[in-house]
Amino acid sequence: CVLCGRTDDCPEKYGEKRTYVEYNLTVHYYCLLMSSGIWQRGEEDEGVDGFLITDIRKEVNRAAKLTCNICKKKGASIGCVAPKCKRSYHFPCGIQKECIFQFMEDFRSYCWEHKPVQKFPDRESRGTSQCTICLDLVEQLPVYTVLKSPCCKNAWFHRECLQYQALSAGIFFFRCTVCNNKDKFQKEMLRMGIHIPEKDASWELEENAYQDLLQCYQHCDIKRCLCKKGRDYNEPDSKWEIKRCQCCGSRGTHLACSSMKSWEQNWECMECRSIFAKSGSYSKQKKRSLATSEKTDGTTCLLEEPSPKCPRQSPGSQRNFLLQSPKIMCQNNLPPCSHLELPASNRVTMSLSPLTSNRNWSLRKKHLRQQRREVSNILKELKLQVNTKTTRLNINAENIWNSALKGFRQRNFSPTNTIEIKFTNCKDRSKADTSAASKHRFFQLLMLHLQNSSLFEGSSAKNLSLDFQAVKENLYFEAGKMIAVSLVHGGPSPGFFSKTLFNCLVYGPENVKPALEDVADFDVAQTIKMIKYANSLSSLQSTIHNCYEFLAAAGCLRPVTALCDKNMLVNDILIHHVIKRIISPLESFRQGLKTLGVLEKMQMHPDAFSSILCHKPERLSAETVCDLFTIHSSSDVNKVEGADFWMGYLQDVESGESVVTLEDILLFVTGSFSIPPIGFVPEPTIKFLHIRYPTGNRLLNCLELPITKTYEQFKNKMEFTIRNTLRAERQ
User: Fold this and answer.
1) Residues 6 or more apart from 62 whose CB is under 8 A from it?
2) Cα 512 to chain center, whole Å?
3) Residue 25 phi/psi, 5° resolution?
4) CB–CB of 4/31 below 8 Å?
5) What average pLDDT does this structure show over 628-641?
6) Which residues of 319-331 are buried (b: 16+ CB within 10 A; e: fewer)?
7) 613 touches 493 (CB < 8 A)
């Protein structure tokens, strides 16, 4: 390794060892990550995970002048961050000397003298206990090799065991093995130098890890099999099709071997029959079989109630809901939604008088404004975390997602730094200044991209989609982080969350009941409608038969013995498709929204945040714009007359008697065509001055207006300036 000089290849200790023959370079990943004088300035696919080769060479030259305080050799690239401490060391030497390396934020390193330690109450008993990972004994002492859980009193771990578990589980599944706490546990372990990689768990990334769930039992277990081609031969839609036991599913028979005329006939294996016989319920089971008791339309029930031997698998089985729903293949064409006949109980007609409707709409708008004012105050409180240190993001507006992703992932990026945007593509170079206008535009483009990206699905109210590549690249986490940063740094809110998605984030997915409107897949939605609005048991059974494979993969197969069973089945399908199927992206997205404490505030003030995350900003009105600006004027200016001209002009614009819009006016002054949830900083002001034409100062959010003798002069100057200024910017 060019930084530590060692040949060891131990990924668990030093990170992956990489060799680049074309550059004559070998380096340990952790050595590179913890080095004090290098940052990721490139794309993820450039150099070594964003560390440019030229920067690595410079860091090697810098370290060559420093002597390691442990091995006394040159090349010590890591320094202790404690004030006035001048110790330098190699990464492997630091591990050997029990230094602490924090794999988070600024990747700080502490020497053996200044490293953080866990504090335990003096009254706490000392002794030995079991490491809850390897189950070997561990001494309850505050030493480097032993760590204590911050959330459980008697949970102790070997440091080495914890590190192996963190590397395997990743950030989404690494948690306390006793109480399952995640946030508090991860925070403490990161502080104490445990590296938790931002990736999915190793068992989630195994190729075809859940393939066995798609395998159906295909073997004839009858004592005397009649099929000449063998017990494993299966020919669908013939007498040699294999039918599985309706109770346990782990035994099978050819239709001909059990003298069955149709696949729809029920069949139980000998083991399940014996269990029923011993429990005295076998005859009762036979009576409930639609094959013998209900023959009104010649259709038999597809499923029977499972036996006590093999309880039905829960629809929430982890492996089931992580499978992406297969395409539904139905023999019968589903009728379009508009042709479905709803039961009379589902058809509700309501009539409201125009007066009542307008009054309710007015009250709703007033309530929405109050909630948005509350959100503004909350976000201003969160913005107190932002310091004056500046991070510049170089953004290409034509490739907004990749350039934003690169900026958010660069090593020196911190959500608590002030963000400065510079547009790098030529046509935007004139706008690349330090004003808030560039930042407004950046976040507007970013939110628009997210709304139309593959991370979300739906028309207007969107839920998370299941994109395996995005899960692998941790894009859901980045999306949540970007939304949180946009809200706190003065950008727009997304405004496209569905109520179901919002409730999952705030109350937890286990407490949310999705609706049919949340299903974006047309085929799945049609299937649910066919089940929901089935008006007879036979039509319900036919629909279930057509969708058998989909229901099995979703873990939603359940006994159907009466028409009312359809309600539970519909509920199972909705929960699987809308929530459990995307549980991994949802957890990642939640982690991203925790940035700057946004998710915590959402959970404390759900109604307020719902107004900005689930609703688009209300259309600007003359009253809203008028209230937004504070009027200032010098002593020699008639403030009343100028204000009259200004308010009269806003009313003309609102009523359509102008060539500009209220959004154009706001864009002219602030660089944004909507009011961000946090409001504008500084607050917009108006000044009446002795000038020829109006001026929009976007740095101060100040609109300087000319003093005119007549309203017509005022209106003409406003329209001429705003229209031509915005036209020039667009060109």
Assistant:
1) 37, 77
2) 17
3) -140, 130
4) yes
5) 67
6) ebbbbebeebebe
7) yes
Question: Which residue blocks in 174-281 are alpha helix, DSSP H?
Answer: 183-191, 270-279
Instruction: Look at residue 373 and give its three-state secondary structure.
Output: helix
Residue 483: both structure tokens together: 């939304």
DSSP string, 210-234: TGGGGPPP-----SS---TT-TT--
CA 608 to chain CA centroid, Å, is: 20
**Helix, strand, or coil here: 579?**
helix
| Inter-residue contact 159 to 148 (CB < 8 Å) | no
**Beta-bridge mates of residue 157:** 147
Q: Say if residue 474's pLDDT is above 90.
A: yes
Of 390, 372, 493, 382, the C-alpha closest to 443 is 493
Instruction: Note if the bond before 150 is cis, omega within 30 degrees.
Output: no
Q: Are 726 and 664 in contact (CB under 8 A)?
A: yes
H helix or E strand, kind and range, residue 170:
helix 159-173
Separation between Cα atoms, residue 317 and residue 323, nearest integer Å = 11
Q: Share the mean pLDDT of the chain.
A: 81
pLDDT of residue 344: 37
Q: Is 702 helix (H, G, I), strand (E, B) or coil?
A: strand
Predicted confidence at residue 353, as pLDDT, reads 43
**In the structure encoding, which two tokens stand for residue 170, read together?**
């990743």
Determine contact, residues 77/66, Cβ cutoff 8 Å. yes
Distance CA 442, CA 404 (A): 9
Other Cβ atoms closer than 10 A to 569: 23
Q: Give tens-digit pLDDT for 207-231.
A: 776 666 667 788 999 888 999 889 9
With residue 165 as reference, give the H or E element that holds it: helix 159-173
Res. 368 pLDDT band, cuts 50 70 90: low
Name the token pair of 484: 């949180």
Cβ atoms 706, 691 nearer than 8 A: yes
CA distances from 562 to 184, 265, 304 (A): 48, 17, 11
Tokens linked to 134: 């390897």
Residue type, 287: K
The length of the chain in residues reads 731
Asked if 173 and 322 count as a contact pair (C-beta separation under 8 A), the reply is: no
CA distance 375 to 370: 9
**250-259 as b/e: b if 16+ CB within 10 A:** ebbbbbbbee
CA dist 607 → 175, 329, 368, 493 (Å): 30, 41, 9, 15
CA pair distance 117, 683, nearest whole angstrom: 46
Query: Which of helix, strand or coil describes residue 54?
Result: helix
Indicate the burial class of 18 (C-beta count within 10 angstroms; 0-12, 13-18, 19 or more).
Answer: middle
What would the two tokens of residue 714 be? 């005022």
Q: Is 14 a residue whose pLDDT tops 80?
A: yes
- The CA distances from residue 682 to 473, 490, 679, 698, in Å, are 38, 11, 9, 10
Angle at the Cα of 500 from the Cα atoms of 504 and 204, rounded to 5 degrees: 50
Place of tokens 């771990």: 157
The 3 state secondary structure assigned to 406-463 is HHHHCCCCCCCCEEEEEECCHHHHHHCCCCHHHHHHHHHHHHHHHHCCCCEECCCCEE
Q: Which residues of 6-16 are buried (b: 16+ CB within 10 A; e: fewer)?
A: beeeeeeebbe
**Is residue 295 over pLDDT 50?**
no
User: Which H or E element spans position 129?
Assistant: strand 128-130
In terms of pTM, does the model score above 0.85?
no
Phi-psi region of 132 (alpha: psi -120 to 50; beta: other; left: phi over 0): alpha
- Is the pLDDT at 721 greater than 50? The verdict is yes
Give the separation between CA 210 and CA 207, rounded to whole angstroms: 8
Whether the CB-CB separation of 670 and 680 falls below 8 Å is answered with yes
Amino acid identity, position 270: M
